[in-house]
């Protein structure tokens, strides 16, 4: 249970949050036409006669969009409705050529489900009320002309899933965790690419405030927020605004608002409409959607291993730490890279994946992700390949490289993209286990520090680390630390 509250002049207030996430369905065609859906195309170059609402044009349902919505519902263990129906949501706007949007108000394809999140140190289940399929509107462009607005219909008819949560979240952190988890699930399933910066996933944020134990307050809806950070900021800003209004004697109006990230505030857009304002009625051009048992079985069989199952397997079977597991499973791209690394590393070392998992996850999270973050690249843009990462891990495992040397090699790999074996050979970075050479250096270190040798032998055991450090320094970090430790123990008595 979240303990998040906002302090007002009259004491603490609780926040009640629900999210309506619009996720663009991955498909090469739109929901009811064969027009393309690629991001970034020139305006009005991906518009069919159906999308432009030319007279006599009839919609034809895209089966792939139905399949992806069903698979998404199954991934959150939701009720799949074998019978659903499309409705017309009627309103006029310049970027809506039909004068209505085809949606599913009364009979959605997916019913109730749930998503488990971790936030504020607590595990919590957030209910999902429904997932329905609908078509997107076009886009008004206000910055192309000093006195006129242009219309781009490329998005008109693009297939969306609207994923509606219950008002179960009570802090910005919970809302952020929910969005990140939902995005991860969508990307694992492959039903949405989750690129919020491109508009293929965006959230309408419902917020209300109340005193502890009081009924729900009047909510507002902040439209089309396109990043997790902005969603969290919009919740806090809107909640504080509502508290100020109420404490000053005003009342909250149920309305639609917009979030301004430059000012970090919401502003009124229009009064909130009810369903009757849109004059919903069944679409007369589309038959009800009926799903066969065979279709549902095919959808279920196509699902990959999902984040929660991966988390359990990584921790319980592979022995990966909780922190590393969280990072690796946060995005499907991370997971694919890690699992490919496991396969390659295990093959190179002649071991099982469980034997190499701990070292591989530590290197991936600490070294590779840390390095990529410094150079501003994603895992897909990594200059280091999976094969090169596995080769580096093998060189560490067989004693060719020490921990410090491996970090030097890694930095060169990150900069040049060269293979680790080549770097080791060219730079002379190979670790030495030559006992004779190491013993000679140890003798020199002890001769130069006779007072400390006497102190160590007199009981100051902590000086052992000093001798290790001096020996490694004298050998340029290339001595095998295990051999150094063993030989020092013998030499110091």
Automatic annotation (TrEMBL):
Taxonomic source organism: Sphingomonas crocodyli
Function: Allows the formation of correctly charged Asn-tRNA(Asn) or Gln-tRNA(Gln) through the transamidation of misacylated Asp-tRNA(Asn) or Glu-tRNA(Gln) in organisms which lack either or both of asparaginyl-tRNA or glutaminyl-tRNA synthetases. The reaction takes place in the presence of glutamine and ATP through an activated phospho-Asp-tRNA(Asn) or phospho-Glu-tRNA(Gln).
Name of the gene encoding the protein in the UniProt record: gatB
Keyword line: ATP-binding, Ligase, Nucleotide-binding, Protein biosynthesis, Transferase
Listed name of the protein: Aspartyl/glutamyl-tRNA(Asn/Gln) amidotransferase subunit B
GO biological process: glutaminyl-tRNAGln biosynthesis via transamidation; translation
HAMAP family attached to this UniProt entry: GatB (MF_00121)
Similarity annotation: Belongs to the GatB/GatE family. GatB subfamily.
Pfam families given in the database record: GatB_N, GatB_Yqey
EC numbers: 6.3.5.-
Superkingdom, taxonomy of origin: Bacteria
Domain Asn/Gln amidotransferase: 336-492
Molecular functions (GO terms): asparaginyl-tRNA synthase (glutamine-hydrolyzing) activity; ATP binding; glutaminyl-tRNA synthase (glutamine-hydrolyzing) activity; transferase activity
Keyword flag Electron transport: no
Subunit structure, as described in the record: Heterotrimer of A, B and C subunits.
Coiled-coil residues: none
